[in-house]
Amino acid sequence: MVTAARLLPLILFLTAVAVGCSAWEMNIRLPTERLAYGGGEAVVAPIIHALRPLLGSGRQLAARAGVACDSWRLGVEAHNVIDWRTVPAECEGYIGHYMLGEHYRRDFAVVVDEAVAYAETLKLAGNGKEIWVFDIDETSLSNLPYYAKHGFGATPYNATSFREYVAEGSAPALPETRRLYHRLLELGVKPVFLTGRTEDQRTITVTNLHRQGFSGWEKLLLKPAVHATGELQGSAVEYKSGERQKLQDAGFIIVGNIGDQWSDILGAPEGARTFKLPDPLYYIG
Ligand SMILES: *[C@@H]1O[C@H](CO)[C@@H](O)[C@H](O)[C@H]1NC(C)=O
Question: Where is the signal peptide (predicted)?
Fold first, then answer.
């Protein structure tokens, strides 16, 4: 009896631990099962167990020849890895899977959902002066059809072939950005495109944007054509912040600013709030 009486607290303790553990396991599993962002498509999320952290970590895809491609991509998106010229050769397959699979679009939708939610909270003056700055490439239009044929950023940038691709005017819209664009028009915020594309590409850019369901913008700001040849190439941060300053000087209020490059959103005046879209394909400083 004495032994049983002594054991009882131990049994109760162990039961409590077991119950506690399973509750805890539930807690760590639930977030992974709620990962399904974007379009209501079913997303198969790996079940993560605290004691087996390697399971579902994407290790096989990510680690090649000493480069962890998912860590590299995170470094890029957080702007810790800067001034890089090409995707590490070992990561071409990883970036290809990321871009063509659901992951890129899901990451993209998270940003746009935040932007839409923010826009809907704005107390707008409705005076026609409130604008939202949009970048074009990898923000409003996708050049993935080009990059899929050119090593997903792992082969050096070729200005000639890229300009040939742009000249086709066939770049598809990024539908999430188009959704933000139309919501802003409904709210009375005017879209302004600010792009590193050059004036000689204006006509085809307008055509491409119209084909893909973008219209009714306030301004489409392109770089002077002299930049097309690579001469007088200042930094993108200087160029874009300078253009935003001119907008502000003209009385516009930049309520939001969205782009895939940090150079789209760095440099005063940035805009009341900025949104960084994913882009592991190339870096523009
Ligand atoms: C760049 O693209 C052009 C046009 O497609 C091609 O003629 C040229 O060989 C390419 N250059 C390199 C270095 O691949």
Answer: 1-23
